[in-house]
Amino acid sequence: MKTLYTLFAILFASTLSAQTPSGIEAAEYDPSGERWFVSCGSSTLLSTSDMGDSWDFFGSANASYGMEVMNGALFVIHSNQVFAYDLNTAELLGSESITGAGFLNGMGSDGNGTLIISDFSTGRILKIDASDPENMSSSTLVGNTGSTPNGIVVDVANSRAVVVNWGGNSDIVAIDIESGYVTTLVNGSGLGNCDGIDMDSDGNYYISSWSPTRITKYNSDFTESEIVVSSGLSSPADISFDEANNILGVANSGSDQVTFHYFSGANIQNTNLHEDLEVELNGNEFIFNLSLGDSFTFTAYSLGGKLLEVASVSLLAGKSSVLLDRLPEGFSKAALVHISRDSDTGNSAVKTFKLGQRQL
Q1: Read out DSSP for 31-75?
Q2: Taking the model in full, what pTM does it have?
């Protein structure tokens, strides 16, 4: 079972680790391995399976900028080339040199063998056939976007790459991944120096910007937007969304930290804390089903891992509920609530419920 020390590491990216990320530029989630990668400039490529509690070298791989997991391989940009590494062994599978490359930066994929890459310096958008990592080939999709393209995500459903740009009041554009036709989705976003972009499972877009420093969420057709993260960031660069767990990983190039931001998913979360005990969160109500009566410790945390409140609740055998609104005031500001069963040695039976995006 996770200890409270591990919980802090899960809530907010690493402070102590075997390897320390530095010069970071991009984060990428690997759903098959349930781990995160971070590119560390010219030095190395690191991975974490415990949300930043510890970092390890990914073989001898290197990555400077954008990364994508696709078809059992990790594709990365390093030294203005594209490299492919086997996800299981970290073995180098192949590489592709880009003729006339200025500053390869952002990378997106269709998940089926195609990579789309931005060239920050030349304004080009490149298309790479990576279906065979040992024999990749590249072509120019757009010769010059007329802007400074940075982050890219491929919207497979609409056969387009959505690109954010560097500079003040930057536009957000879409590029048809077959024809290269460019359309403007947002003419003057009000965001300066946009760096990263990714999508969630509902087709919403998340964009990192340096001015103002924040993460902005757009709906699928870019008609609505909201600020979803506005603190704990420092020059947020490339980002990645873990769709299974509704977690956004952000590579903060200003602080060399990867921060993880939780978003609410389904309204109901359920778990077995023990064979004789079940508890679920339905809206703002914790519902317990107990074979035996017991007492439980509820602990409230902010998104950044700050301890907000602790409460002890005694419950009888059978079905009972604990309303979030009836707990002490600190729980009203909680992003996560940690529940432990007091009768277990060392409070080892632990479950953390995500309450959505709440910040102090």
Answers
A1: TTTTEEEEEETTTEEEEESSTTS--EE-TT---SS-EEEETTEEE
A2: 0.71
pLDDT tens per residue across span 41-77: 766 899 999 888 889 999 999 999 999 999 999 999 9
Q: Under DSSP, is residue 331 helix (H, G, I), strand (E, B) or coil?
A: helix
Asked whether 118 and 153 are in contact (CB, 8 A), the reply is: no
Count of Cβ atoms closer than 10 Å to residue 271 Cβ: 13
Q: What is the pLDDT of residues 1-13, one digit of tens each?
A: 333 333 333 344 3
Spell out a b/e string for 124-162, using b for 16 or more CB atoms within 10 Å of the CB, else e.
Answer: bbbbbebeebeebebebbbeebebbbbbbbbbeeeebbb
What single letter denotes the amino acid at residue 22? S
Write out pLDDT tens, residues 128-172: 999 999 999 999 999 999 999 999 999 999 999 999 999 999 999
d(CA 345, CA 353): 21
DSSP per-residue letters across 82-106 = EEEEETTT--EEEEEE-TT-S-EEE
Q: For residues 199 and 307, state if they share a domain.
A: no
What span, in angstroms and rounded, lies between the C-alpha atoms of 7 and 302? 12
Rounded Cα distance between 103 and 349, Å, is: 50
CA distance 32 to 127: 25
Q: Are residues 199 and 140 in the same domain?
A: yes
- DSSP letters of 276-330? TEEEEEETTEEEEEESS-EEEEEEEE-TT--EEEEEEEEE-SEEEEEEGGGS-GG
Query: Domain containing 239: what range?
Result: 14-262
Quick check: is 170 in a domain?
yes
**143: nearest Cα among 100, 80, 172:** 100
Number of domains in the chain: 2
Are the beta carbons of 237 and 26 closer than 8 angstroms? yes
